[in-house]
């Protein structure tokens, strides 16, 4: 690990971005007064777009290199995290996809110096770099070396294409490298070919996109079709897409009801909905009344619908809006206490994390062996890596206002979005 750190190229660790002060001044003017845009000629507008895009590319290059340096030096451990990607998501509020792109690009830059130079000059974009980064990972570089393929030749070609042709042309040029590695066609790898992304929208609805290899796709289509064909009531006017969507939910229902899914932190997976008792029994309480285990907000009517065929757990809330204690009778956290902690904390409470509750443990703020109660006030939801961190010097505590705070071993607080002093 430390040998790898010592081998970091000086050019990677010594980063200086020389921003033109006149351009910076122009940018300040544009940001301060949008009306100034109306005083620009068409030629000036296009010139500003060209110049600012170049500066953005240069900034993206510096960000990617800094991310790579942070990865090699394990810099994010100062904030208790184990990956640069998680730090970018938690501390800079990047999406998972954007954080992954930054890390990928930072890793590939040292292997394609010609293209990286164009990136640093601002003539190549982060998106172009990611096209290369997605195709030139550790496995591909090893295969190229084994076959005697000179990556430098491709690097020079990519640098030229990136700065003189369209984005699509670079995609084609990178595909030539992939084909050179596998002249008889790419050997199918189900692990790399299978992906699923889901997005939860403000109204709680979920959309997604998935890609599967031929065999995996056949399995999924077969399972869905079995449900589609078994559920064809007379007069069903649903479209094919709607029937398949219903079949997917039914498959999930069947799997959850069967009880054969992996147990999550001593609890069988189940749909969780939290709602006030008054909202559950009263009508007209609004469209955004209840919350699900994954954070979606749903209406009281939908919660009541779920409650028709559900187990109901009563969590009595105290005067300050927190579930009441379980007491010190139990050393090991009971399922009831865990439900109370999840209801309060929702996710891992370590600063910059937010890992879902089903990845998390209930941590005793004061260990039970030292007299700490097994109670709500002495509990915090922490994912496994941060549970370990807290047992090795980091500390979390809940202030009187109900806000969780995280402290490093030296006593300084981790503040999201702030500079490290």
TrEMBL record:
Classification via CDD domains: HNHc
Pfam families linked to this entry: DUF222, HNH
InterPro entries in alphabetical order: DUF222 (IPR003870), HNH (IPR002711), HNH_nuc (IPR003615)
Residue ranges constituting the HNH nuclease domain according to the UniProt record: 336-388
Family: Belongs to the Rv1128c/1148c/1588c/1702c/1945/3466 family.
Listed name of the protein: DUF222 domain-containing protein
Organism the protein comes from: Klenkia sesuvii
């Amino acid at each position: 690990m430390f040998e790898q750190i010592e081998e970091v190229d000086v050019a990677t660790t010594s980063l200086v971005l020389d921003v033109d002060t006149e351009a910076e001044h122009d940018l300040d003017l544009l940001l301060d007064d949008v009306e100034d845009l109306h005083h620009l000629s068409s030629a000036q507008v296009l010139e500003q777009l060209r110049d600012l895009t170049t500066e953005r590319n240069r900034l993206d290059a510096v960000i990617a290199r800094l991310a790579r340096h942070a990865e090699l030096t394990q810099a994010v451990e100062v904030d208790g995290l184990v990956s640069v990607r998680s730090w970018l998501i938690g501390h800079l509020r990047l999406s998972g996809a954007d954080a992954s792109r930054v890390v990928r690009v930072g890793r590939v830059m040292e292997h394609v110096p010609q293209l990286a130079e164009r990136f640093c000059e601002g003539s190549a974009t982060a998106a172009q770099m990611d096209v290369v980064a997605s195709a030139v990972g550790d496995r591909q570089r090893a295969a190229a070396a084994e076959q005697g393929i000179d990556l430098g030749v491709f690097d020079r070609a990519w640098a030229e294409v990136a700065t003189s042709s369209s984005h699509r042309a670079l995609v084609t040029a990178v595909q030539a490298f992939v084909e050179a590695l596998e002249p008889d066609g790419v050997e199918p790898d189900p692990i790399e070919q299978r992906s699923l992304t889901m997005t939860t929208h403000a109204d709680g609805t979920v959309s997604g996109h998935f890609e599967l290899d031929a065999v995996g796709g056949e399995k999924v289509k077969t399972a869905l079709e079995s449900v589609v064909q078994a559920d064809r009531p007379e007069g069903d006017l649903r479209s094919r897409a709607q029937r398949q969507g219903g079949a997917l939910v039914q498959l999930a229902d069947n799997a959850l009801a069967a009880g054969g899914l992996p147990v999550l932190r001593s609890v069988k997976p189940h749909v969780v909905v939290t709602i006030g008792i008054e909202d559950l029994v009263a009508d007209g309480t609004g469209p955004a009344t209840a919350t699900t285990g994954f954070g979606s907000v749903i209406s009281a009517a939908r919660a009541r619908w779920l409650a028709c065929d559900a187990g109901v757990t009563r969590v009595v809330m105290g005067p300050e809006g927190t579930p009441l204690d379980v007491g010190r009778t139990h050393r090991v956290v009971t399922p009831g206490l865990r439900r109370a902690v999840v209801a309060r904390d929702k996710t891992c409470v370590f600063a910059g994390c937010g890992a879902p509750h089903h990845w998390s443990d209930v941590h005793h703020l004061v260990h039970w062996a030292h007299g700490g109660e097994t109670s709500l006030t002495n509990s915090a939801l922490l994912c496994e890596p941060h549970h370990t961190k807290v047992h090795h010097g980091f500390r979390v505590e809940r202030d009187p206002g109900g806000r969780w705070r995280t402290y490093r071993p030296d006593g300084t607080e981790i503040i999201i979005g702030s500079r490290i002093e």
